[in-house]
Amino acid sequence: MAPPSPLNLPTDSPTAPTHEPSGIKPAPATAAQQQPAASPPEPASPAESASPPDTLESLMIQLGVITGGQLMNDQEDAGYHPAKIGERFHDDRYQVVRKLGEGQFSMVWLAHDQQLDRHVALKIFKSSKFFTDSAEAEIKLLERVSRANPAHPGYGHVAGLLDHFKHQGPNGSHVCLVFEPLGQSLGALIRRHKKKIPEPIVRKIGQQVLLALDYLHRECGIIHIDMKPDNVLIVVEDVEGVIRWDLEHKPKGGYDSKSSIPLSTSSSDPFHLQGQSDHDPIAVKIIDFGSATWVADRRVEGVTTRPYRSPELMLDAPWDQRIDIWSTGCMVSYVPTYQREVQGQIRS
Fold first, then answer.
1. Is 123 annotated for ligand binding?
2. pLDDT for 300
3. Residue in 12, 74, 91, 226 annotated catalytic
4. Where are the domains of the chain?
């Protein structure tokens, strides 16, 4: 059986469409449909393999992934939990299946929810007080996002928190967050497809991101602060089917208990997600609330990624939630602007 397939965009088309495809509607961002595709995923080319990760490794919730899945060597300050394939968390509810990647704050694992028979992204924070405090602050923001107003049209375009708990391990107590698995990031899509994303798709993504920001700003009272392509993820239709197909056809080895390096619990393994036509519906969700803050309590510095930084932040002037709108404008205009330049039709 072939896996269900998410969005795929052309990489060799000389021009991008300049009109909206007829009949296209955003896919519901909160429901998955069980529809298998016609063929299995194709292996990535050497060029694609050398580029930053663009599959479930890079698209997991709120993860600053180190490219290639390399672990940090600072053992004294590591504080990671040395999870094993098959290890269970939270009263045996979540069983680790595969490692997805790691960042400065945490490791992310693909896990199976034994209670609901589905796969989830399990984010395990490092155990020091700094990372614990950061995780607990993030939980408060995410809980507000999950409950504020489900009827708002932007609600389904923000990745919500499914569960959270603490886990005691050999390196201390770790805050663990559970999220839904999503598709590749917009940033990964840009890198994979040489930035040639059709403008109707970009407009649709921009519309959904703005709905999500309206929800965050008006209903939740939250400023995201770090809007960029890597923090916008594609919703995969039947992501559970994609994961199960990959696990069945590409099983990976588990934890080497004889290893002298306790953090090398498993090789990071991305899931290669192939796609469908650029005329298919597309839905996205905003992720990563690690830098976010409350509208009414801006005690953090507004440190956005430089290419998307607003004039207020550059000039060290007072700022508010409008910095998210500026960043989104930069992000959305980036792709079509690049297409025009490479086609020799630069427009002001």
1. yes
2. 62
3. 226
4. 53-342
